[in-house]
Amino acid sequence: MRRKFVTNLLLLISLNLLIKPFWVLGIDLKVQNVVGAESFGLYFALFNFSMILNILLDIGITNYNNRNISRHGYLLKKHLSNIVGLKLVLAVLYSFVCLTVGFVIGYDKVQFHLLLFLILNQFLISFTLYLRSNISALQFFRTDSLLSVLDRTLMIVICSVLLFTNLTGGIFRIEWFVYAQTAAYLITMLVTLSIVLAKTGRISIRFNRQFCLVFLKKSYPYALLILLMAFYNRIDSVILERMLPDPLGKQQAGIYAQAFRLLDAVSMFGALMAGLLLPMFAGMIKRKETLGSMIQLAFVLLFVPAVVIAVSTLFYSREIMELLYHSHIDDSVNMLGLLMTGFPGIALTYVFGTLLTANGSLKQLNIVAFCGMALNIALNLILIPSLYGKGSAIASMVTQLVTGTAQLGISILLFRIKFSNLFIYKLVLFTGLVILATYLSKRMDNQLAGYLIAISASGIFALSLRLINLREMFLLFKKEP
Fold first, then answer.
1. Which of 8, 312, 349, 383 is the most exposed, having the fewest neighbouring CB atoms within 10 Å of its CB?
2. Per the domain annotation, does 464 fall within a domain?
3. Structural domain boundaries enclosing 324
4. What is the pTM of this model?
5. Whole-angstrom distance, CA of residue 212 vs CA of residue 209
6. Is 328 buried (19+), middle (13-18) or exposed (0-12) by CB count in 10 A?
7. pLDDT tens digit string along 352-403?
């Protein structure tokens, strides 16, 4: 199982390293530099608003389905016919709630126009993720890996034509960015659907009320978890844009987006690993297999890079922002450092939150997520009036570290995980060495060389302390007895 995890993880990361950095740094970032912080802030706040309520499109179906089909693959065809009908009903509910809440909080005509397309985009994403959950649950990980980058690949092609050619006369509007996403998500959904149908054969879409009630009863704890996590991950920019007067609110949301974009980019890889871990953990728990070595492997592969990324970004935040953006550098530098300091907490969530989800420990996860949401909203409301976007960054950092540590603690108690004293000592020593090396590298005259030396030294520390064991990784590729 460890061999399958590592080989598929390498494929997944390789594909995403080819595509997603170019999307984030070449397209998404370029769009913000072209349209400006205020226009992008408007889009960013609306996008996060649609993300928070997007749980109404899923009600926990995707996570529950992934766990369930990985255990009982023969149920795929039966569930697919009924869940497709259920998803269409939920799409109507989601649209109604989004538009109603948007009206209540005072969105104008321009915001409603963008919101309509963002609502459609969220439905296409949600439906594609559900379809992909069937593919990964059946452990067709290579197929799922290719599908994970298809939408971004299509968006890169479409946006590159609009941004880097004279087709539009050198003009680019934020609405076009949203339309390009719609086209890419639609094509990806159709391709994914055709692959699932190839596995199941023809299906008939139906809405079975009894099936849906039973399914929703089983999946609603997953829905509650996703809703609570969406609040503390995405509410910052919405509160910023609504709480501060125009145009300051939109501008601060746009500046916050500059820093959050990089956190979101590195978090993508943790999310991809979690997608692989969920069906693997679920299958191993069902078969009562020993989880210790798998948990430690996943923890090291996520937490070690998270420490390196957080520390290096904290020290080199100004150099990074000056390289990427044209304006609002001073404001976004502090936000970036704070947000990235919370990244190790996100890494903990991707490992131990996924483990608890696979185990069905939803009560514990929902308590942690509710506390995280309450903490995040309270900190935002207290800090935004005086600190603006920096207040939101502080709220995010504290929330991620608290919730990640809480999930680690619960996992240790439930699964009786025992990390050796030597392993803990190595982690502490590694973290200290990374901080020291990065601090010393910052004193170099050539900042680019200093940054590269800090990253390289961190890799050497991880190998020297045998936190990452290349020989063991190599042996995993050999056929296990």
1. 383
2. no
3. 2-418
4. 0.76
5. 5
6. buried
7. 999 998 898 989 999 999 999 999 999 999 999 999 999 999 999 999 999 9
